[in-house]
Fold each of these.
Amino acid sequence: MVRVGDPLPQAFYERPATEVAPDLIGKLLVQDPDSTSGTLCAGRIVEVEAYCGDGDPAAHSRSGPTARNASMFGPPGRLYVYLIYGMHWCANAVCAPAGAGDAVLLRALEPVHGAGAMAARRSRTGAAVGERNLCSGPGKLTQAFGIDGAHDGADLTTDGGLSIRDDGWTAADMVSTTRIGISRGTDAPWRWYVAGNTHVSRR
């Protein structure tokens, strides 16, 4: 039986995204067994980016609530899921008090349990499914975990479905850099990743 710990409580997320993001490094994204795979899937969070409400030009929440970003303004500890390029889903942990519009993008995971089920989901898209490539990017990890728009607003703090948990693991060394894949807010050092980890999307 894989040890995954308990879901992080809502209080963990009730802080600015820039505080929550580095604390998410090393935690586990866990998907309880479902009718599709019947397998518990768990991936260690090895890369994240913080997005910080109306003061952040790169945040989806910079101009206030819309139909697309409504979950970003909801209670902390929920999942904000959006589509980019019309084809890739991205998953974010909502942070700060409700209404702030803060969230942490989950950029990469290291598979810990259920890699076969992750590979099966990824292979349906024709993607390469080597373990190093399973979750090494925000669109890859949502494919591997079967996360899509139906998960927008999901509660990460409860058992069942998707949750983020603490199994006691800590990174020996963590790197802080500027965010990638954006055209605004490029100077903010709000990306963190585990140094030397081969599952990070870009080092």
Amino acid sequence: MLNWFRDVFGAVYTVLHGLYVTFRYWMRTYDPQRRTFTHHFEYPELPVPVAPRYRGFHRYDLTTCIACDQCAKACPVDCIYIGKEKVTQGKGFRVTGFTIDYTKCMFCALCVEPCPVDCIFMGATHDLSSYSRDGSIVDFSRLPTEIAWGRATLNPTAVATSKVIAEPVHGGPNS
């Protein structure tokens, strides 16, 4: 009987504690001194500070990729598509397309670990807003060279301009 009362008290206590936390955060929304997100960080003019281990949008170095498909095989949601063709002189493959569908990506970073040449890694970019789903599909082989090589951050303007480029900017290390 004592255990039953202890369980009932524990259940009532946890519910009341959860309601207290909810009510406390709810009342903070009506604080007149509270500022909006854009007042805190001056977004989008200044970038939002992110933690050093933040897993944002990928950065991809097209010059070192050997088109081994290890990142695409490790992806649990199959959002990485690699286009490649056999090199006629020499050995290896030529990268014709490296596309990541960010409508499916869950930013787990499981694609980073199996890469034998470390050409894909997680970046610090957190905003890739677009008006259509087509803007969330990024082909890294058609991006400007600085972004495709991982030296600059991924941005919506570069993704939009890369949609009109028909041929890859750079074919990878074998071209």
Amino acid sequence: MLIALAEPEGYRLEATDGEIGRCRDFLLDEDQWAVRWMVADTRSWLPGRKVLVSPAQLDTPDWSSRRLPVRLTRAQIEQGPPLDADAPVSRRYEQGLNAFHGLPDYWLGSGLWGDYPLPSSMIGAREAMIEPAPLVPEAPDSAEPVPARDDGSERLRSLRELMGYGVLARERGADDAGEVQVGRVDDVIVDDAAWAVHYLVVDRSWLPMSTRVLLPVDRVDSIDWAERTVHTHAGAEQLKDAPSLQGDAPVTARLAAAVDEHYGRPHHAGGEAVSGT
């Protein structure tokens, strides 16, 4: 189903043998518009550590009870490759973490999750092991080679950081038209099975009674992280006239279909089971 992802910040995280903390953030792949990692706030349990959990390691979320079950033990999480709280998430670190948990690398293959249709299908026999796997060596000469184009963290961005970015649309909807700001990013709408981002929620008013509309991510041209702006090739009037969200109402299948029709695009798969948080 579709869920508003900014809302689960603070959701309780439960490993198979006890609570591990709260959900703090999500890391987005801006190239393929997918949630690659959840960032866990482990508080006093693992101070100074940034703990990442793959969507493949999340059991079925309980949105009504604000719970995100994690298919790992506390020991598996604690003994994973360490990453400083302020360190960027490099592709090399992702490789080491995947190797530790027995997960395939999502960037190897033709689909959103490599050769796997959903992150849940990436779980293999190794994820149930009691003893942790040995860490992947950090030395460049012994670590798995990383293609130069993938060696970095620029494709993974914080959802928390994206909130509030200005949305710039083409003033007249033409390729050579100038841009005008039409709102700010207020949320993202995600399919919680594939963890694919379908829409940005754009707050297009600075008034107390704001209007929030959905912008399909395939209408986004680029994100300028330095200038804190999102650029779309949708026309300003088209975005302003898009179907709006009513208060905290969920994103229903009917609304999603209306939004897709408004932008002249095929309706996304799986829209029949759509809800909010």
Amino acid sequence: MKSLKRIFINFKHYWYLMTQLITRDFKRKYKRSVLGVVWSLLYPILMMTVMAIVFSHMFRFKVEGTNYLVYLMTGIIMWQYFAEASNSAMTSVVENFALISKVYIPKYIFPVAKCLFVGINFLLTLIPWIGLILLTQIGVGKYPASINIYYLIIPYILVCFFMFTIGVGLFLSCVSVFLRDVFYIYGIVLTIWNYFTPVFYSIQILPESLQKVFGFNPMYQYITSIRNIVLYGQCPSISSLLILGLISLVTLLFGSIVFKKNQDKFIYYI
């Protein structure tokens, strides 16, 4: 309880620093970019367009009774956030060694700031996502997306998703200090994980035994929960919502504990 209280006190005390880190990342990302933050809106649209052409026309992927564009874009923006945020968090401690070595700063601020920075971009990508959902109501795609009261559950799912990502980011940022090979290994892990997450295909095309294995993939759980609301108008069961919350809490606690137990050793390895 005291440690949690201490974390909240640190957050309040170092909030200005965190906002500066996020601002710095924004300036760095969009430096010399003509469109700037508009790329956050254009990127998922362009990515969805390319993948829709490739998978729906060349490889003939489709999901029966579903607007494939919304199905695809939901998977793209959620996977893109997780991959970018976890990758950025992983390198955050090592990248800020000069600052860490000069003044005392709670080191978890760096991976959390990265997840929040990428999270802001993620929230911006929800604008074209919502726009696409609305366009399906006037004929974009064969099937319209569903607009229903269950959209009120989506913020809860996204909060759980952010917590899960921060937990993974804390763990990776800690391990990467001691084992730099993680920078390369995680890229391979992400590629494999991406293929085992139904971003552009439906698990219905897989054998039933393999479908059950997908249930252990947290990314599948988060993406599918939102797809069920947006595409099918289905309310996630209480048990599935509790599972999402449990996955998030366990991952966040695990990442926080590993980070906290090892952070004092960082200075000797960076």
